[in-house]
Structures are given as C-alpha cells and as structure tokens.
Amino acid sequence: MFRFVFATALLVATVAAGPLDRVAYSHQQNPDAHAQIVSYENVLKDDGHYNWSYETSNGIAAHEEGLGAHNANGAFSYTGPDGVQYRVVYVADENGFQPQGAHLPTPPPTPEHVFKTLEQIRANPPKDQKDFSLEALDATIARLRQY
C-alpha cells in the first residue's frame, strides 16, 4: 500500500510541475547559430607547407601556417559573451602549444636558482648522455627567460 501511495504522489508531483522552461541560450536564440562564412582559404603546397584562414559574419577569424605536423603558428579572435574582443596568437612546435593573449594567465617567473642550475649544466654538459643537446638546453633557457 505504501508503494502505491508513494508512486501516485510522485506521479502527481511530476505532472503538476509541468514542463521546464527552455534554456535561454538555445540554438534558435543564439545569433551565432546563423553566422555565415565571409572568407575561407586553404592552401597545401607540395613541400608540406600549408596555410589556412577564415572569417565569419559574427566576427570570428582565424589563420594558421606551418610545415606538416612539425610546427605551426597562427592566431584566432572572437567576441566573447561580455562583448570584449579576444585575440590569441600561438606557436605549436616541439615545445608544445604556446598561446599568448592579453586575457590569458601567465606563469610565475622562473626562480633565479633554476637559471643558475641550467647555466651550470650548460658549462659542464654531461658526457655520458648521448641524447644531450646544448641547442635544446639553450632553447629551454631562452623560453624560460620570456616570463
């Protein structure tokens, strides 16, 4: 009997609640849903170099150029829900994806003792490691000094 009463009460509560309002940010109400492509270009050269770009009617734009899967650099921009224009410039290479933009957080500065350690390694490179590269170490030091 208790189960019957509980199930009936649950059914009555569900029916009485009625349908939920649709989310205000639905596909039909989103102006970006009707954005048109204003320009589009995609070029792939025989030597593996490529570039592409596009722009849409709602202000989204992006471009990239690179060489195969080895490296790429480009940028994209869009207007956020707050009305602010955001722009990101990036490089993607052996050091990973490296975006830069005024709105992106930046890492804390590298402590000086890390630079001292890297400089000591540079001055006395390990002789027993065949895959050690001074060029890679210099690139790492240069990248860390950017911040």
Automatic annotation (TrEMBL):
The lineage of its organism: Eukaryota, Metazoa, Ecdysozoa, Arthropoda, Hexapoda. One of its GO terms (molecular function) is structural constituent of chitin-based larval cuticle. InterPro entries: CHIT_BIND_RR_consensus (IPR031311), Cuticle_Struct_Prot (IPR050468), Insect_cuticle (IPR000618). PROSITE patterns: CHIT_BIND_RR_1 (PS00233), CHIT_BIND_RR_2 (PS51155). Keywords: Cuticle. GO terms for cellular component: chitin-based extracellular matrix. This is Uncharacterized protein. The keyword Transcription regulation does not apply. Pfam families: Chitin_bind_4.
